[in-house]
Design a protein that fits this description.
The chain is mainly alpha-helical. It has helices spanning 2-8, 10-23, 28-32, 37-46, 64-72, 82-103, 109-119, 124-134, 151-162, 200-223, 228-231, 236-250, 256-273, 278-288, 293-304, 314-327, 345-353, 375-383, and strands at 170-174, 181-184, 189-193. The chain has one domain.
Length: 385
């Protein structure tokens, strides 16, 4: 069936493969994570939080202008189907936006405007949702929240957890990432922060989030006839992060603390549009919201890296969208077919009918049954606007 599809839709496949060759250069997070996080953190704390950090970034290994030109060289008019042609057109614009992001990392406002174009910014409603969550008193979350596992113990857990899925992936440790863990799609690698102390809850959250969703959609995407599924549809961050946090929720590992962390990210991303500096955002979180010093640093770093990176507000909006989708009895496995979005479901169904897409081979383990026992979380998620 697959080869038949290639014959009938050779124009789609040709463009899809061209884009696949080009897109490997643009793993944004690879360039966006500062190289001198630890040094700057020490300096920032020593300055009593009064001096904006000076971050250094990786050198770019390609010519942004040439790459842009190659993207726009694609002869999309050859794709006859309007919906599929629109899908590819939007994707080319998005990749072009990502190249502009990479090109302007560390260039202040220039980068910020490029990141706005690709990821958007929190709306007033999103900020209100975040504040609503932050109104709830902290819960006693106990033993499972005490950081006591080193990176090697965490790695052993992830290797064991990964056996639930019949795919292989790499685990690497690094000092140069700004999260406790992240997945690099292109190299199929789970990166762990070297000097991080993990608590039991965080290890389970990361397993269900990074392996249970991000690696599942990476592998499902790579199994698809079209590479667009693994390289990512437009705005896929929101749906993908929503699915990943839903996996934390369904495996009974989502806590109010974690939900508040996602809310602080919205507040921090919103502070960018108000023109806040690194020092200002840190001050807002640390002094006004009483976030711990390390968490305030972490959240501020995530949104200020590069010159202002708004992507972090999408975790909460994504969670709300995916939670509602799930509560309405819709099929989650369709959203696992690759790096896709809720908005693109009609075109995914069309691609399936044409034999250009296949059902998800791997399904997120936690989605088989909802094990969440925290009623307060359901109350909160139902009442987000």
């Amino acid at each position: 069936m697959h080869f038949q599809a290639v014959d009938t839709h050779s124009d789609i496949f040709e463009i899809d493969q061209n884009l696949d060759r080009l897109v490997h250069n643009i793993e944004l997070l690879n360039y966006l994570n500062p190289l001198n996080i630890e040094q700057e953190k020490k300096k920032f704390f020593a300055s009593k939080y009064s001096q904006n950090p000076q971050f250094k970034y990786r050198k770019i290994k390609f010519s942004p202008f040439k790459l842009q030109r190659l993207f726009f060289n694609q002869r999309l008019e050859r794709i006859e189907d309007d919906d599929i042609r629109r899908l590819y057109r939007d994707i080319i614009y998005e990749y072009s936006g990502l190249i502009e992001c990479i090109e302007t990392i560390g260039k202040g406002k220039q980068f910020y405007y490029n990141s706005l174009k690709v990821f958007g910014t929190p709306k007033e409603r999103d900020v209100e949702n975040a504040r609503f969550i932050l109104h709830f008193a902290n819960e006693e979350e106990g033993e499972k929240m005490i950081p006591k596992y080193n990176v090697n113990e965490a790695q052993t857990f992830f290797e064991e957890f990964g056996k639930r899925y019949d795919f292989d992936f790499n685990i690497k440790q690094s000092n140069h990432i700004s999260a406790a863990a992240m997945v690099l799609n292109a190299s199929d690698t789970m990166m762990l922060k070297k000097n991080h102390k993990f608590c039991e809850n965080q290890i389970k959250v990361l397993a269900n989030h990074e392996i249970g969703v991000h690696l599942v959609t990476t592998h499902n995407g790579k199994a698809q006839p079209l590479k667009i599924f693994s390289n990512g549809f437009v705005n896929n961050t929101e749906t993908q992060e929503g699915l990943a946090v839903l996996s934390e929720y369904m495996s009974n590992n989502l806590t109010l603390t974690r939900l508040k962390e996602l809310s602080y990210r919205v507040i921090a991303a919103d502070s960018l549009i108000k023109g806040y500096s690194f020092v200002d955002t840190f001050d807002l979180l640390y002094n006004q919201y009483k976030v711990s010093r390390d968490s305030a640093w972490q959240i501020t770093l995530r949104v200020h890296r590069g010159g202002g990176f708004t992507k972090d507000f999408l975790y909460l909006t994504g969670l709300k969208k995916v939670y509602d989708y799930y509560q309405n009895g819709n099929d989650l496995s369709l959203l696992l077919t690759g790096k896709v979005t809720i908005e693109s479901l009609p075109v995914i169904n069309k691609l399936m009918e044409l034999g250009l897409a296949i059902p998800s081979a791997h399904i997120t383990d936690s989605y088989s049954e909802n094990q969440n026992e925290n009623k307060k979380l359901d109350f909160i998620l139902r009442n987000l606007k």
